[in-house]
Amino acid sequence: MILYNVTVGIDTELELEWLQWMKTKHIPDVMDTGMFNSYKIFKVLSQEDDNSISYSIQYYADTIEKVVTYLDHYSAPLVREHRERYDNRHVAFRTLLEEVV
Questions:
Q1: SS3 34
Q2: C-alpha torsion sign, points 26, 29, 35, 40
Q3: First to last CA, the chain
Q4: Is 93 a residue whose pLDDT tops 90?
Q5: Residues 6+ apart with CB under 8 A from 3
């Protein structure tokens, strides 16, 4: 199992609108690529900045090849859409993890 994790810090005043947009638009668009089996959203409880709130969006894939296909063929317009919508109001970083059994 491969986990593609996107951690986003969003301005607190945009939190609810951003979360709704993520649930109804962005995440469905990512899932519609067919590269991931499922996803989860976690709110980060340890916050160091009172002006932003962080979330971890975790996308699960069967193989690294599917994640690479997503990154190579699908992610650019989705990342651009998010960046343009929340320009200067968010930060994001991505992590790729492999399950160890």
A1: coil
A2: positive
A3: 10
A4: yes
A5: 58, 59, 60, 61, 96, 97, 98, 99
Q: How far, in Å, CA of 15 to CA of 43, rounded?
A: 11
Runs of H (alpha helix) within 1-101: 15-21, 27-31, 64-73, 75-85
Q: With a threshold of 0.85, does the pTM exceed it?
A: yes
Q: What is the DSSP letter of 48?
A: S
For 17-63, what is each residue's pLDDT tens digit? 999 999 999 999 999 999 999 999 999 998 777 789 999 999 999 99
d(CA 57, CA 73): 20
Give residue 23's pLDDT. 98
